[in-house]
Amino acid sequence: MLQNEPELVILSSWRLRRIQKGRKWKIIGTDVVNPMVSEKIDEALGLPKGVGVFMGILNSPGSPAGTPENKDKGYMAAHKKANELDPRHKDPGKEYSSEHIKQNIKNTDGKKLYTQEELIYINNKTNVRTSVGRFKTNP
Q1: DSSP assignment of 20-84, as one string?
Q2: Going by C-beta distance under 8 Å and a sequence separation of 6 or more, which residues neighbour residue 36?
Q3: What is the DSSP letter of 19?
Q4: DSSP 8-class letter at 2
Q5: Cα 49 from chain centroid (whole Å)
Q6: In three state form, how does the secondary structure of 5-17 look?
Q7: Residue-by-residue DSSP string for 66-132
Q8: Residue 53's closest CA among 74, 31, 38, 36?
Q9: Quick check: helix, strand or coil at residue 137?
C-alpha cells in the first residue's frame, strides 16, 4: 500500500478455529470489519448506518461449512437466518450492481509500478454510483 491513499479492505472477514483442551473442543470465531467500507456500502444501499457490520456479525457464527458441490450452502443458510433477525437489512438484489475497475500503472519504460483497483456500487434505478474504496497493490 502507498501512504495517504484510501484503502479498500474487505467489508467483513471471519474465520473459525477449533481448540482442544483435554477431551473438550472450543470453537472460537474472529470477525474483522472495516467500518469505513461498511458505512459506504450501507449508504449506497440506503441502509441505516451499522446494518452491514451487524449483518456480518450475525452471519459469522451461524455459517456451517458448505459442501464441495455447493461452497456457499452454509453461508446462504446463515444469511437467510440473519435477514430474519434484522429486518433493516436488505439484499442488493437486481436494484444494484457493482463495477470493479482495475488499472495497471506503469512507468515511462513500460514497467508495471502497481495496480490500482476500485469497487463501485451502482443503483440501477437511479444510476447513482458510490465508490466503496480505492486501493493500490504492488506488482
Answers
A1: EETTEEEEEEEEEE-HHHHHHHHHHHTPPTTHHHHHHHHHHHH-----SS-TTHHHHHHHHHHHH
A2: 133
A3: E
A4: -
A5: 16
A6: CCCCCCCEEEEEE
A7: --SS-TTHHHHHHHHHHHHH-TT----GGGEEEEEEEEEEE-TTS-EEEEEEEEEEEETTT--EEEE
A8: 38
A9: strand
pTM score of the predicted model: 0.61
User: Are 11 and 33 within 8 A, CB to CB?
Assistant: yes
- Is residue 77 predicted with pLDDT exceeding 80? no
For residue 22, give the C-alpha cell: 483435554
pLDDT surpasses 80 at 131:
yes
The 10 Å Cβ neighbour count of residue 2 is: 12
* Residues 52, 35: Cα–Cα separation, whole Å: 9
Confidence of residue 2 (pLDDT cuts 50, 70, 90): very low
Confidence of residue 117 (pLDDT cuts 50, 70, 90): confident
Length of the chain: 139
